[in-house]
């Protein structure tokens, strides 16, 4: 079997405050998103969200149901978002072939039985970043490129947060049940993302950091606004953000990150913003 998974149970802010650095990383950091010729998944009990990656090198990889789903096939009661952060590849869904280039996305709705990942060139394999959430109805499969995305430019070089937000799998672009995904690209000279910070009690989120130059890192901030913690992260790592937590980061270089979220609604702006001067 080429699908490997682990489960992470949800904890509250009181419990999180008792964790040391190692325990905090064990709870929230997804250190190994990609392994050659494997699908790696983390099933988190925050909104039953799944995050992981598929990197087909020497063979095609089939997305099989994992035990926590108690399902005949992976998308029996789920939807799936895919963003390719590697070389060119293909996603085959029940016989339909979708070509995905670098930073292109694909939404796959509930009820599709077979999802297969492959690379066009083993020397430059595709790296399919995966997010999945429970779904109550089936929506059509849709490929979304940056040209199709809703794009917002925020911040400035003066505040080190000049960035482009590419809203890829959001309800203004594609119909989904609850899954939303997008990609934020930091401009050269800018390092801060999602600042001012916010929380959103009605949904959780996962951040995936990539295009972090070799030898550089991102410091991801989490926790309640009045008592934050941090996790140092490297290229192609992800971090789980509970509903009660802020989610912001600062890198030692500019970088790109993918945000994915699920929960009670599809309102992108449903958030409780916190002023920079409030953070502790």
Integer-rounded radius of gyration: 18 Å
Strand content: 35-45%
Helix content: under 10%
Q: What's the total helix number?
A: 2
How many beta-strand segments? 24
| SSE run | EHHEEEEEEEEEEEEEEEEEEEEEEE
From the N-terminal CA to the C-terminal CA, the straight-line distance is: 45 Å
The name CATH uses for the topology is: Jelly Rolls
Quick one: overall form? globular
- Structural class determined from secondary elements: mainly beta
Provide the low-confidence segments as ranges. Answer: none
Q: What composes the largest sheet?
A: 7 strands, mixed
What's the CATH architecture? Sandwich
**CATH class categorisation:** Mainly Beta
CATH superfamily: Jelly Rolls
Counting structural domains, the number is 1
Topology:
Blueprint: E1 3-8, H1 13-16, H2 21-28, E2 29-30, E3 38-44, E4 49-55, E5 61-62, E6 78-84, E7 89-93, E8 96-100, E9 105-108, E10 115-119, E11 128-134, E12 142-144, E13 150-154, E14 163-169, E15 180-186, E16 192-193, E17 198-199, E18 203-210, E19 218-224, E20 227-233, E21 237-241, E22 248-251, E23 256-263, E24 272-273
Parallel strand pairs: 1-3
Antiparallel strand pairs: 2-21, 3-4, 4-11, 5-10, 6-9, 6-11, 7-8, 7-10, 9-12, 13-14, 14-15, 15-23, 16-22, 17-24, 18-21, 18-23, 19-20, 19-22
């Amino acid at each position: 079997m080429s699908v490997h998974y682990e489960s992470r149970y949800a904890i509250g802010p009181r419990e999180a405050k008792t964790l040391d650095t190692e325990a905090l990383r064990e709870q929230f950091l997804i250190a190994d998103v990609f392994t050659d010729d494997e699908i790696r998944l983390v099933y988190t009990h925050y909104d039953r969200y799944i995050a992981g990656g598929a990197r087909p090198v020497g063979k095609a990889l089939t997305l099989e149901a994992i035990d926590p789903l108690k399902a005949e096939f992976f998308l029996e009661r789920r939807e799936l978002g895919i963003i390719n952060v590697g070389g060119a590849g293909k996603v085959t869904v029940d016989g339909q072939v979708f070509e995905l280039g670098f930073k292109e996305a694909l939404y796959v709705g509930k009820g599709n039985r077979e999802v297969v990942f492959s690379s066009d060139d083993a020397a430059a394999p595709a790296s399919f970043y995966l997010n999945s959430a429970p779904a109550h109805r089936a929506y059509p499969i849709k490929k979304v490129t940056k040209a199709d995305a809703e794009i917002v430019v925020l911040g400035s070089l003066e505040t080190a947060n000049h960035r482009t937000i590419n809203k890829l799998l959001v309800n203004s672009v594609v119909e989904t049940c609850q899954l939303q995904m997008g990609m934020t690209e930091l401009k050269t000279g800018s390092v801060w993302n999602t600042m001012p910070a916010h929380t959103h009690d009605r949904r959780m989120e996962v951040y995936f950091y990539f295009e972090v130059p070799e030898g550089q890192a991102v410091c991801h901030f989490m926790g309640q606004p009045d008592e934050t913690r941090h996790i140092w992260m490297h290229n192609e790592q992800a971090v789980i953000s509970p509903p009660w937590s802020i989610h912001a980061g600062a890198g030692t270089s500019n970088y790109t990150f993918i945000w994915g979220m699920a929960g009670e609604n599809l309102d992108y702006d449903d958030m409780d913003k916190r002023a920079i001067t409030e953070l502790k």
